């Protein structure tokens, strides 16, 4: 319960709180149109960490981005850039956040050619699990790796 409350707080802090209590109810056709207009089925993802500084350093280096570190009681957060993004990513260190190579795999945008990012994985403390590999349907390429915390992650790119 504490983790859910903290996650909700983080989401509200990152994206801002929008009070929709007075919003009119939407019809099924309006809801279906909203689904069609979505840029992504995912809105926020959390990457668990045991060492927030190490994890922030890993993702800053591999993705070539600036990650903002925030601290709250019992929770440390790394906020990935979110302006202009359809999906927001955060790195979380706190009770209930355990890195894992099992479960859901998040595929990060590897840009035009994921090999550029993949080449930064091992020098920054990660491990390549599957090298750059073409999709069977020739729709692009993917790779899998463990990050500095032991989370299994993927990369995807068109080339």
Automatic annotation (TrEMBL):
| Record CDD domains | SgaA_N_like
Residue ranges of the Glyoxalase/fosfomycin resistance/dioxygenase domain?
Answer: 45-152
Instruction: Give the top-rank taxon of the lineage listed in the UniProt record for this protein.
Output: Bacteria
Q: Which Gene3D superfamilies does the record associate with it?
A: 2,3-Dihydroxybiphenyl 1,2-Dioxygenase, domain 1
Protein's recorded name: Glyoxalase
């Amino acid at each position: 319960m504490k983790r859910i409350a903290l996650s909700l707080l983080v989401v509200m802090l990152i994206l801002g709180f929008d009070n929709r209590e007075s919003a009119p109810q939407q019809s099924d056709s309006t809801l279906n149109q909203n689904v069609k207009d979505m840029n992504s089925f995912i809105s926020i993802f959390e990457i668990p960490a045991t060492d927030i500084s190490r994890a922030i350093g890993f993702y800053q280096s591999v993705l070539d981005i600036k990650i903002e570190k925030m601290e709250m009681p019992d929770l440390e957060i790394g906020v990935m850039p979110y302006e202009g993004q359809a999906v927001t990513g955060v790195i979380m260190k706190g009770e209930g956040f355990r890195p894992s190579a099992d479960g859901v795999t998040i595929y990060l945008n590897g840009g035009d050619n994921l090999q550029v990012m993949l080449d930064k994985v091992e020098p920054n403390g990660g491990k390549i699990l599957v090298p750059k590999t073409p999709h069977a349907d020739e729709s692009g390429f993917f790779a899998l790796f463990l990050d500095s915390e032991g989370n299994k992650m993927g990369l995807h790119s068109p080339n």
